[in-house]
């Protein structure tokens, strides 16, 4: 939908206007059949959940037609391709971007407001990845590559993992700006929790460009 970034009025949403989170119900883990073809096909179908499940933060803020998990990961992958940092393994960054939230196909986009501890969230996501990699994909070389990329991102130690984490933050801020403009909202908390935490010099510069553009039109 086209928008005019210069003509709108902000509507600030406070905590009382944000819908309380519903208790999350997790689907059962997949039970391996022993037939690699059947189990692999089941994994391919599970991926559809990433296309249909909405990102929780936007749903909580009553954003109409909120983005899906895969929407978020796709833009991150393209952002990774836009970097000029020749010290990074860009192919790895792109692949990491498209698998970093893969566990959410099983557990959904869990947010702190749901009362699930960080440790429990990590356990649930690791359990989901194990189910995908070993029960559905039978520990194939491709599956182990996906698992390694996911683990590298979760550990956050390599330059590529740190870069992709910054893209995760920047993508959220970009989306927040687009929702502000489209729906005349003030989504300041999404900027506060993302842009100040950018560390990669180029991504930080992209974030500054976004903040300046937002300031000019606000």
From TrEMBL:
Cofactor needs: Mg(2+); Co(2+); Mn(2+)
Short name of one Pfam family: HD_3
Known catalytic reactions: a 2'-deoxyribonucleoside 5'-phosphate + H2O = a 2'-deoxyribonucleoside + phosphate
GO biological process, one term: deoxyribonucleoside monophosphate catabolic process
The UniProt record lists the keyword tRNA-binding: no
Record's keyword terms, sorted: Cobalt, Hydrolase, Magnesium, Metal-binding
UniProt GO MF annotations: 5'-deoxynucleotidase activity; metal ion binding
EC number: 3.1.3.89
One GO term describing the cellular component: cytoplasm
Domain HD/PDEase, residue spans: 65-182
Free-text function comment from the UniProt entry: Catalyzes the dephosphorylation of the nucleoside 5'-monophosphates deoxyadenosine monophosphate (dAMP), deoxycytidine monophosphate (dCMP), deoxyguanosine monophosphate (dGMP) and deoxythymidine monophosphate (dTMP).
Protein family (similarity comment): Belongs to the HDDC2 family.
Subunit structure: Homodimer.
PANTHER family noted in UniProt: 5'-DEOXYNUCLEOTIDASE HDDC2
Protein name: 5'-deoxynucleotidase
Record organism: Suillus placidus
